Amino acid sequence: LTRAGSSAAAAATIASRLRRGDLDHFSENDHPVAVFGQLAALTTLYLSCSKLASLPDTVGQLTSLKWLYLGNNKLASLSDTFGQLTALTTLDLDSNQLAALPESYGALASLATLGLHNNQLAALPESIGQLTELTTLHLENNQLTALPESVGKLAHLEELYAACDEAGVPVIALFPGIDAALKTPDGAEALNPDGLVPRAVRA
After folding, report:
1. 126-133 contact pairs (CB < 8 A, 24+)
2. Which of 23, 115, 144, 192 could form a disulfide with 46, with the two C-beta atoms 3.0–4.6 Å apart?
3. Pairing mode, strands 159-164 and 136-138
4. pLDDT under 50 in the chain at which residues?
5. Are the C-beta atoms of residues 87 and 110 closer than 8 Å to each other?
């Protein structure tokens, strides 16, 4: 095969693996970078446990993605083009080496579940408050000492998992989204035995 033919064959093989769902354990020398632009209809992408240290800007071309799993890699930073993945509902970035998130993450308007457990985050961008559909946020085992005030704008957030690293005390904070029709001046819905917080306390 010519070099061009070999590259095309390699890209076809990777694309086939992606479409089959055979996505775990890519090596740094067997990276699906070359085919991202060909997979605009892809809705689910698993690249967990793949030893990936980086992702290309072309990841932003996967505009149909709804579920993206990138856990257990070596990612230290992420491209601003992630903000183009506006169809994402689930993003797993657990167990990487991320020290920061780009402000463009605020554009992920459909995101409901965000996993950032076991990274090196010392702060979160203020734009996280724009993730208005977010219901679950995992932040355990990072270097966070505070959360941005914009977190208070996450009206649908039901589960926020964090940890006090210095004290070694796990913390689970729950922010139930209450239907506007159930809100009253005395906050009676908070005492509903079938509500999220009472159920969590009983458990």
Report:
1. 126/150, 127/103, 128/101, 128/154, 129/153, 129/154, 130/106, 131/105, 131/106, 132/156, 133/89, 133/109
2. 23
3. parallel
4. 1-7, 20-21, 27-30, 165-170, 203
5. yes
- Going edge to edge, which strands form the sheet with 90-92? 44-46, 67-69, 90-92, 113-115, 136-138, 159-164, 169-174
- Cα–Cα separations (whole angstroms), residue 154 to 11, 35, 53, 95, 136: 40, 35, 31, 24, 10
pTM, two decimals, is 0.70
Residue 28 CA to residue 43 CA, distance in Å, equals: 23
